[in-house]
What does this fold into?
Amino acid sequence: MKAKSKSSEVMDFEKEIFNVLNKPLKKGAWLWWFWLFYIKTPKSKKPRQLMILWSSKNNPLINCNGVDVTCRQATDKSKFDGTVAAWYFDGKKMHHNLIMEQCNLRASDNKISSDTKIPTFYQVNKTNNLIEIGDDFKFIAKRKGDHSFLKPIQSHIEYLGKGYSIIRVNRMDLTGTIKNEKIAGTAYFQRVYVNSPTAPWYWGSFHFDNGGVLVYFNPRIAGKSIKKQLYFFDSKKLYKFKKMGVKRIEGKLPVFEVSGESDKEKINFRVNPYSHSSWTFKRKVLKILPSNMIYNEYPSTISDLCLTDKKSGKDILIKGLGNNMGNSEHATGVLL
It folds into this structure.
């Protein structure tokens, strides 16, 4: 039996982003709204970055970074069990567990909010996305760009009743304030619904000054790739690579060497993390079998980007990309 899959690059983002709560989560299913904010920083500092995630998982008990989380089945989106997690790299220091708290989540047709000690909300207003984290962080992420790669993309895959659905926006323009300081940058967003065990993965998202984007995703089981996706958008043309590989090189912080290949081009680049935060998930299946996953996130930049024409063997000139900011992930273990 083949997996059912579909991908659409045309969708009503404002209508779809919260509608998954219109039906109960299946047992073990996991739902989250995930933001990464890449914040332009003076040259003397490393790029600032903030991650926030609102999530709900239909499991009776799960431990994350030492916090026990109990979640009942979400049946009413006006109030349901959930968790908010966030970290912030301020240019010098990583603030782990900026928020790591079980809470009540409240959702409507265009908004989700939490009653955490530091209140949070995310609201969609046409092409604007409004995000507030207490009084210190107030962001507006605006969808912009005519290319289909910059528009909301929806993907879905299902096999024997298990699978995932994802809505993502690869790049948005960011404005706002941090502690009343005006900031600018870019943002990445995804909403994910998973109804299957989560496998280990490599993932990365990078934004260039000229509007370019580079993203990759490589989940693995027993060390073997089960999906290979690598996209490079130079702000005008989109390059897609179905063959790809990621190599982790150990150090104080790891470095990732990434390569990809299509029928016409090859690409190689190096991912250089400069900070790190992580989430460690632990639960017991049937109350006896341990199931653990470590989800590592690395604020990063990329270097040594090389795009080559396979037929001629010559490098394709990539002009005016400018600096880049981004995030790389490496998750290990399996969460059942």
Q: What stands out?
A: The chain has two domains: 1-196, 197-336. Residues 197-336 form a domain with the AttH-like fold fold (CATH 2.40.370). The first strand starts at residue 4 and ends at 8. Residues 295 and 331 are 4 Å apart (CA to CA).
